[in-house]
Amino acid sequence: xxxxxxxxxxxxxxxxxxxxxxxxxxxxxxxxxxxxxxxxxxxxxxxxxxxxxxxxxxxxxxxxxxxxxxxxxxxxxxxxxxxxxxxxxxxxxxxxxxxxxxxxxxxxxxxxxxxxxxxxxxxxxxxxxxxxxxxxxxxxxxxxxxxxxxxxxxxxxxxxxxxxxxxxxxxxxxxxxxxxxxxxxxxxxxxxxxxxxxxxxxxxxxxxxxxxxxxxxxxxxxxxxxxxxxxxxxxxxxxxxxxxxxxxxxxxxxxxxxxxxxxxxxxxx
Length: 269
Prior knowledge:
The protein folds into 3 domains: 1-32; 39-142, 2-Layer Sandwich (Chitobiase, domain 2); 146-268, TIM Barrel. Helices cover 41% and strands 12% of the residues. It contains 9 helices and 8 strands. It has a 4-stranded mixed beta sheet with strand order 1-3-2-6. The protein has a two-stranded antiparallel ribbon with strand order 4-5. It has a two-stranded parallel sheet with strand order 7-8. Helix 3 runs parallel beside helix 4 (94-108). InterPro entries: Hex-like_dom2, NAGLU, NAGLU_N, NAGLU_tim-barrel.
């Protein structure tokens, strides 16, 4: 819903020649959005991420979440200092903090981190690149959005928690704080529609198969590649709970799906 609202708001403003007003309105409308997890929870999540990324070298990094280092405009910032032995990174959120770690690894250690693999040839102990005085970086954007409504039906449909955990780590390391989180919604729609009097056979003709859910959700197709077994609903809902928990622990603001106006054909009965 957030995604659709933002797009409609911006296009309407462009048509009427009020791009500046659109930007101002957008910022005001979303002013209340902020991480739900405490600074200590985000710090713990950031520490665990660094352990997963650098299982034998994580002890050289001290990461801390401190919202107080931020500015009044709510833009994320991180600060890095390194004395050759220890690298200290402080950020306004969990995302900002591990983003700072990524910045140090990429720009000072010549590493590479991607969603398919990493190059983490790190310097010897005691020879970490020095940063003195501390380096401070502030994001030019409050929200760093990721994915689109079709992404979920490329390869996401087949991912287990291990793959998702790795990808969420990559999101945080890349500074992403506004990701879509669309898994498991059919399990909710199933409960709603059954409660409203529809039958399972009606839903079997409505929900698309796993590889086609993105287009079924938009109303482009009905039932293509289906029906979906109940085990899929159960597993995807459990997976979504894990995804949301981890995203929020890191200080992300996941965007959940809302009603798109597309209902089963039997709804009219």
